[in-house]
Amino acid sequence: MIGVDIIFILIGGLMLLVGLYSLMRTINFVRKAQQVKGTVIRMVGKHKRGSGSGARIDYYAVYKFTTLDGQTIEKEDSVSSDPPRFQEGQMIDVLYQPNKPQNSHIKHGIHLYLAPIGLIGVGFIFVVVGVVLVTYHLS
Questions:
Q1: Residue of 3, 17, 69, 125 with fewest CB within 10 Å of its CB?
Q2: In what order do the strands lie in the sheet with 55-66?
Q3: Beta pairing class for 91-97 and 34-49
Q4: What is the pLDDT of residues 58-107, one digit of tens each?
Q5: What predicted TM-score, i.e. pTM, was given to this entire model?
Q6: H or E element: which one contains 52?
């Protein structure tokens, strides 16, 4: 039977691997991306169920930009906020892949890196807890 300690190490290791893979993909995207100016054309509010006090609204920016070869792209950002992070008409920096401009993201600081770094951090904690448990059981 597999112990809790080994399960912690396995889950943590998997989270570390997925986080590192995601981080490498993000770094590769940013390195190959073109940067252009774009405009937030509207904010879309989506209801999310909250704990305790009921529903809340998360706001997603819908933005438009023109690629270096003149193609106009409109996309909803994948990062939400409450309150809204952007205003309609606001100028933004957009990163996009030249060969697939629909693969674009608003360049807003560390947000592109939050998910991979979070997975790596939680994975590391799981591995450390698992190793501590193994060490405790062996002593």
A1: 69
A2: 72-81, 55-66, 34-49, 91-97, 100-106
A3: antiparallel
A4: 899 999 999 999 999 999 998 888 888 899 999 999 999 999 999 999 99
A5: 0.77
A6: none
